Task: inverse folding
């Protein structure tokens, strides 16, 4: 494996926005055979049985990737952290949140720039925290917060092509 820097990067235009539009969950191992474009960073298709479940999020949700690299140990990995807020409490959402927290799903994130990212491709994503909250004041959140964390060798891959149609179904 080459550790050399192969090219440069120009300063991009200021034409993007922050935020997550939707997240999509599938059970661990439910991706099937993954097809990639040239290189490692782009997934173009999932297996025929891949089934994702859409969760709309608006506002207080975010996706961050923390890079951890150790010269002493010769290691590098990417911690993928997804913080979600689901508004309103319900019996159905209690069960949904429980199943997400108890499982180890793969998660696709859709941002407001039309990008899709796959979290937990190799190892899945674990719930590492969260709350079920009724709030104190009338304007406070009544709902759920979840922190989901994955650790992978590479950053979360972009998903393009027919892979997106399998996610958005």
Result:
């Amino acid at each position: 494996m080459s550790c050399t820097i192969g090219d440069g990067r120009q300063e991009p235009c200021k034409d993007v926005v922050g935020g997550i539009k939707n997240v999509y969950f599938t059970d661990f191992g439910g991706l099937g055979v993954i097809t990639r474009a040239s290189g490692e960073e782009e997934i173009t298709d999932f297996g025929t049985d891949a089934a994702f479940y859409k969760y709309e999020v608006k506002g207080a949700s975010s996706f961050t990737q923390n890079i951890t690299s150790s010269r002493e140990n010769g290691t590098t990995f990417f911690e993928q952290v997804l913080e979600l807020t689901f508004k309103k409490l319900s019996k159905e959402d209690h069960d949904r949140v429980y199943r997400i927290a108890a499982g180890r799903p793969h998660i696709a994130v859709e941002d407001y720039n039309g990008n899709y990212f796959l979290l937990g491709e190799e190892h899945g994503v674990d719930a590492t925290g969260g709350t079920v909250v009724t709030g104190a004041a009338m304007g406070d959140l009544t709902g759920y917060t979840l922190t989901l964390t994955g650790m992978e060798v590479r950053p979360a891959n972009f998903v393009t092509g027919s892979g997106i149609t399998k996610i958005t179904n």
Notes: Residues 91-102 form the longest helix (12 residues). DSSP finds two helices and eleven strands in the chain. The chain has a mean pLDDT of 92. The helical segments are 91-102, 162-168.
